[in-house]
Amino acid sequence: METLLWALLLVPLAGAVVNVLLGRRLPRQVAGWLASGAVALAFLIGVMATLRLLALPAEERAYVTPTLYTWALAGRFEVPVSLLFDQLAAVMVLVVTGVGFLIHVYSVGYMAHEPADYDFRRYFVYLNLFVFSMLLLVLGSNFVLLYAGWELVGLCSYLLISFWYTEPQNAAAGRKAFVVNRVGDFAFALGIFLIWSAFGSVVYADVFEAVGGVAPATLTAITLLLFVGCTGKSAQLPLYVWLPDAMAGPTPVSALIHAATMVTAGVYLIARASALFAAATSTSAIVAWVGVLTALFAATIAIVQVDIKRVLAYSTISQLGYMFLGVGVGAYTAAIFHLVTHAFFKALLFLGAGSVMHAVEHGAHHAGEHVDPQDMRQMGGLWERARWTGITFLVGAAALAGLPLTSGFFSKDEILAGAFLEGHVLLYGVGLLTAFLTATYSFRQFFLVFAGEPRSEAARHAAESPRVMLVPLAVLAVLALGAGLVLGWPPEHGIIHTWLEPAFAVAREGTKAEGGAGLSPMTLLLISSVVALAGAGLAYGAYVRKAVDPAALSVRFRPLYVLLWNRYYVDELYALLFVRPFFGLARFLADVVDKLVIDGAVNGVATVTAGAHALARRLQAGYVRVYALSMVLGALLVLGYLVYWGR
Amino acid sequence: MERFLAQNWTVIQPALFLVFTGLIVLLVDLWLKEEEREWLAYFSLVGFGGAGVIVVRQWLAVRGLETPITGFGGMMVLDTLGLLFQMLFFLVGFLAVLLAPGYLTRRRLQRGEFYALLLFSTAGMSLLAGAQDLIMLFLGIEVLSIPLYILAGFARPRLDSEEASLKYFLLGAFATGFLLYGTALLYGATGTTAFEALRASEAAAAPRENVMFMAGIALLLVGLGFKISMAPFHQWTPDVYEGAPTPVTAFMVAATKAGGMVALIRLLYWGLGPADDVWRPLLGVLAAVTMTWGNVGALLQRNVKRMLAYSSIAHAGYLLIGVLSGGVGFVAVLVYLLIYALTNLGAFGVILLLEDGEREALDIESYRGLARFHPGAALLMSVFLLSLAGFPPTAGFFGKFLLFTAGISAGLTWLVVVAVLNSVLSVFYYARVIVKMYMQEPVETPAFSRSWLVAGALAVAAVGVVLLGLYPTVVVRLITA
After folding, report:
1. Cα separation of B481 and B476, whole Å?
2. Cα distance from A245 to chain B (closest Cα, Å)?
3. Which of A350, A646, B97, B439 is 20 to 30 A from A291 in CA distance terms?
4. Residue A275 domain-assigned?
5. CA of B467, closest CA in chain A: separation in Å?
6. Does residue A430 share a domain with residue A299?
7. B286 CA to chain A: closest CA distance, Å?
8. CB–CB of B214 and A646 under 8 A?
């Protein structure tokens, strides 16, 4: 088992290293398949490890590898470098490597048109590196390893967002992701420090065992800090702003990193630390509320977007909100279940969107027309032209909408049921409203792209994508359609429940559902079905039957429409509140206080031209005296403090 | 004569060794032609290596002792802390020498004094590491500083270098005044300059009763604060670091800070330990101000050397956390300084290689698209910058972790919060260079000089930064052993 786990972690890293070292000598296709092969191998190893776990009795299914070595040893502080493989880790590993593999394969086709071999290889190196980092995040046996993986996935994400860095806005998007995430990471790091000072250890097992002995206030502080970290990485209010911009990266990257895996790291973290969060009830309430409000907030924005990837980006934020609602109300299994099904159907939708863009670009090329391949207003009628993409996209949209019997239906309902049965009726209500909006926007998207007549020459000449892209779509479609029924039926007693429940046993103690307002799970299931169908029906009425005219609605409710169209002006607000004041302060400190004039260039020019005389003059008249003066003032402050106030 | 011989000379053996090496360098220099002067560099390497061997041997001998060896009437002490700091100084000196010859030759600055001054300055640090007396402290600081004033202006007749030198000298002399005045006041208050007596004095037991004592502490803090670029005494740093020749800047960033830190530790804990409730809150506030000022100041810098100068101010602030934590904090300071030294030497090594005619390519714009043409250099630079930013799994992350956990266990949580917030901020300007290198198209590729010596220094730095990040336990064990 030990060898297996280390191999699992290191195989993708080896893939990246080999591609860096030998890539230049290999044909580009080989580089792509090599990277895919590494992830496939990791997936197989993951399956083997899971089977071994399965052979053990349910309560012993948590394997910690012997410590490879101890990292850092100062005072009492120790971080053992070892891996933990339990039910939760197994699920995450299989999702990361399984979906990861499909996306690698898809990428071989998607990136085939990349002009430079160098960039093609760079892409796969980053992608393999990402899989390695994500596995480290998931497999680490303590918070510090998790943090290391957390930062590394972030790094890969920034690199891939700005992959096409020749476009300035892509580089800016990468930087935005980087900076916004650091805000979250800052809180996360503080949380870890606090864990260490409260528990004297950062190892999961030690920490979770000692939860009872720590003051509730400390627990609340720790969990809140961790959760702020989650809002950064998993794009929740108020730190979600980087994710929509992150769509600047290649579409398979959006599918893998910004939908299926990395952004769910926050949910994983809370599920992993469920013992802490369950004990900190006030934090859990905050998590649930932030989650459900984010879900609603992002869904309202998604409903008016016209960029095919932005709709999906906001939908991802919204769906992540559901997962946080799940972990917030203590429905950990349901949240992870939704994480899994979401990975399937959202990856499917993103890859489908990529295939659509591919098709439209082909058409644009053919028709000699220049269109934005992501603008859904230029599409329409693609059902006839890209049938396989259409079918799979439909499956994805249905699962996202939560149409009955699709995977999203079961997992989303279970989260809502969890909220309801724990007695959080208000949370349930908002969640249900969001579910309605979700169904509407996901079918709005489907109909805008595939139904009706083509609205541009490019769409008219669109053509189906190559098979290497369609096969992953088909596989994901099967998963998105069937995973719910296979894993989650019957509700509360499906495969995923029996598998995961023991992992959350500690957290679930004493919070068993008491059956809220007397509605049975089956009734709730029925309500969810009706809501989802109603939402989808509304989209059908508006965009196919034209019974309701969306354009007329947008005129009628113009202020609301403008607000949504501009995404509530949050970006503008942040620029006003944070970005500008900070640059102002920096300029003031560096240029005015420290220098009194603009430094650098001006300085150099002056010295070169004016010569020694100028030097002498500046020394006499200028900075040295000012610096000395400021030293004196500083000295007076120190002196004054010690001699006068300090006494 | 008898008294002279009776002194325990071993306590200053490493410093003596360096000084003699420096004198020989000066002497030999007279017979060498300009193109032969590179040999002086090799000779200096031997000097630093030899001094390193001496301290390692002393360290092995001293390690098990209960009471540390003292010398010169108790003015110097030979203990593990001082010896470990000296190892650090000599390593930095060694690596700084590796950076120099190519740079000096290209600019026709190859003069023997360079190496001699570097050796003398390091000897000053070596004295500081064991100082047990205010006079010794002062002596060490001056021996450390005066060569640096000259070295900063070594690129004569380049004006910014001369300007740097003169500024540094004038302000440094000013700071020395504070230091000396503070020493005098403490002597006036207690009648002694020896740390041991200072510690036991009445004034130290009840410092608030004694204005002269308090004023002495204040002035000493100002003087030392100048040396470690603590705000608000840091203004000289960007100007001097920018103007000084790059190998000198690298040496100053890495070594001077370490020298200042050890001096501060010696003074505060060995000399003023009982009065810690006086200086502790003050230094805490100053640490917070220093790191914030440094980081905010670095945000918009366009000159890479200037940016790293501001970054070094910020790092001084982080280091003060370790100083304030005491005990485990010293280990953290030492490890952090080692990591910080390796990282900075590496970064300055890359800067130095990026040659653009007469000057180094210092504008941040000249790093655009570097990854395309010099992928190795870009990768190294990224590793160093990420380490400075404290990004896992580089050594910088580990160093910060060590410092901050020391701070937390010493109850300085508020300061650690400020520091973590600051390190978030710092990522912005470090990442800017990485973005330039990897994500922008090159305008023009600067010429790139190659040098085996610099490559060697970079290799040591890079291996150190990566290895200390992945497996820091070795070093920590060695230090705490």
Report:
1. 8
2. 16
3. A350
4. no
5. 11
6. yes
7. 9
8. yes
User: Looking at the domain assignment, is residue A190 inside a domain?
Assistant: yes
Rounded Cα distance between A621 and A617, Å, is 6
Find the closest chain B residue to A613 by CA distance: B159
Residue with tokens 């004297």: A200
- A-B contacts (CB, under 8 Å): 199
Residues forming beta bridges with residue A366, ordered by sequence position: none
Q: Which residues of B touch A630 (CB under 8 A)?
A: 232, 235
Q: Is residue A37 part of a domain?
A: yes
A47 Cβ neighbours under 8 A, 6+ residues apart = A94
- Could you give the CA distance from residue B384 to residue B92 in angstroms, rounded to a whole number? 16
Assign A80 to helix, strand or coil: strand
Based on the fold, state whether residues A171 and A319 are members of the same structural domain. Answer: no
> What is the rounded radius of gyration, in angstroms, for the C-alpha atoms of chain A?
27
Amino acid letter for position B34:
E
Reference A248, options A362, A163, A185; nearest CA is A163
Q: What is the pTM of this model?
A: 0.80
CB A163 within 8 A of CB A123: yes
Candidates B230, B134, B226, B138; CA nearest to B189 is: B134
Output the furthest CA–CA distance in chain B (Å, rounded).
71
Per-residue pLDDT of chain B (481 residues; tens, 9 = 90+): 666 667 788 889 999 999 999 999 999 998 888 888 888 999 999 999 999 999 999 999 888 788 888 888 889 999 999 999 999 999 999 999 999 988 888 888 888 899 999 999 999 999 999 999 999 999 999 999 999 999 999 987 788 888 888 889 999 999 999 999 999 999 999 999 999 999 999 888 888 888 899 999 999 999 999 999 998 898 889 889 988 999 999 999 998 899 999 999 999 999 998 888 889 999 999 999 999 989 988 887 888 998 999 999 999 999 999 999 988 889 899 999 999 999 999 999 998 888 655 556 778 888 888 887 788 888 899 999 999 998 878 899 889 988 988 888 888 888 988 998 888 788 888 888 888 887 777 776 666 777 888 899 999 999 999 998 888 877 887 787 6
Both structure tokens of A118: 């160098």
- CA A232 to mean position of chain CA atoms: 9
> Is B165 part of any domain?
yes
Q: How far apart are CA A199 and CA A143, in angstroms?
A: 12
Structural domain span for residue A595: 571-645
Same domain, A449 and A590: no
Q: Is residue B3 part of a domain?
A: no
- Cis peptide upstream of residue B232 (ω within 30 degrees of 0): yes
